């Protein structure tokens, strides 16, 4: 019997090729450090520290998962490898940094100035990774070199590229968003269509869709210029 192709989550449409993508103000921002992994661990922790070589002590994991941008494009079947977030948390963050109890609001900072957040609980899901390869190649600049978060159950804007810092806080106070506050949901779960806070996800499908192609072209233009200048 033929296997039925897996349905996409509500409101999503498949795209064949994954574009470099994001909010347009990040289209011309690129990471400085693309071949050396270094992630600082901070927030309400006893011992702030930097993770780099320590990551290599963890067992590597691979997974194939779909990717869903809030603007409704999805790419199926991406193969990632790297480290499971839960392993990083349990084997490195907890014993070495010693987060305060209740430090469960997690802020992710990126080299291009982008930042996003997720509840610790969501980050500890089985399929959440810190990835350094995509489809068998080292992660390139387009898709988040040298290290990015992969959280397939959450919209793209939670999947931080060019990750540089992870902070564990007891409250949201330290998170100064750069975007309109409604645009980012606290959790952003794809299955529940949590595209934004307070605005119905079904409505936002139609708001975002017309901007996909022009945004992808804008990011592509800047990426080509960056690659030529480098
Ligand atoms: N550092 C950083 N991470 C980011 C973004 C960004 O602009 N900067 N954009 C987010 C959004 S909205 C999406 S859809 C995905 C896109 O990932 P891609 O460029 O690998 O397709 O990255 C997310 N992570
Ligand atoms: Mo996105």
- CATH C-level class is Alpha Beta
CATH architecture: Alpha-Beta Complex
Shape: globular
- Please tell me the total number of domains: 1
Major sheet details: 6 strands, mixed
Helix content: 10-25%
The CATH homologous superfamily name equals Oxidoreductase, molybdopterin-binding domain
User: Count of DSSP helices?
Assistant: 4
Quick gist of this model?
With 230 residues, this protein is an alpha+beta fold.
Give a written overview of the molecule.
The protein is of the alpha+beta class and 230 residues long. The chain contains four helices and eleven strands. Helices cover 19% and strands 26% of the residues. The mean pLDDT is 95. The structure holds ligand MTE and molybdenum atom. Residues 18-23, 26, 69, 110, 112, 114, 143-144, 156-157, 159-162 line the site of ligand MTE. Molybdenum atom (MO) is lined by residues 21, 69-71, 156-157.
Q: What's the topology here?
A:
Blueprint: E1 13-14, E2 39-43, E3 49-51, E4 61-68, E5 73-84, H1 85-97, E6 105-110, E7 115-119, H2 120-123, E8 129-134, E9 137-138, E10 148-150, E11 163-169, H3 201-208, H4 212-229
Parallel strand pairs: 1-5, 2-11
Antiparallel strand pairs: 2-3, 4-5, 5-8, 6-7, 6-11, 8-9, 8-10
The structure holds ligand MTE and molybdenum atom.
């Amino acid at each position: 019997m033929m296997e039925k192709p897996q349905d996409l989550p509500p409101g999503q449409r498949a795209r064949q090729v994954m574009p470099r993508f994001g909010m347009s103000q990040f289209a011309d921002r690129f990471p400085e450090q693309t071949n050396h992994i270094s992630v600082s661990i901070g927030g309400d922790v006893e011992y702030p520290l930097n993770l780099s070589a320590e990551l290599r002590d963890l067992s590597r994991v691979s997974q194939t998962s779909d990717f869903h941008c809030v603007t409704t494009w999805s790419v199926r079947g991406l193969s990632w490898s790297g480290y499971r977030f839960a392993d990083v948390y349990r084997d490195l963050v907890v014993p070495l940094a010693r987060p305060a109890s209740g430090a469960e609001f997690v802020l992710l900072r990126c080299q291009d100035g982008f930042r996003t957040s997720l509840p610790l609980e969501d980050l500890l899901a089985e399929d959440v990774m810190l990835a350094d390869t995509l489809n068998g190649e080292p992660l390139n600049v387009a898709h988040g070199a040298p290290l990015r978060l992969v959280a397939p159950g959450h919209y793209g804007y939670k999947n931080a590229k060019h990750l540089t810092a992870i902070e564990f806080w007891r409250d949201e106070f330290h998170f100064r968003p750069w975007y309109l506050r409604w645009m980012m949901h606290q959790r952003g779960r794809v299955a529940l269509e949590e595209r934004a806070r307070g605005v119905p996800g079904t409505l936002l499908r139609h708001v975002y869709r017309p901007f996909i192609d022009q945004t992808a072209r804008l990011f592509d233009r800047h990426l080509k210029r960056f690659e030529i200048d480098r």
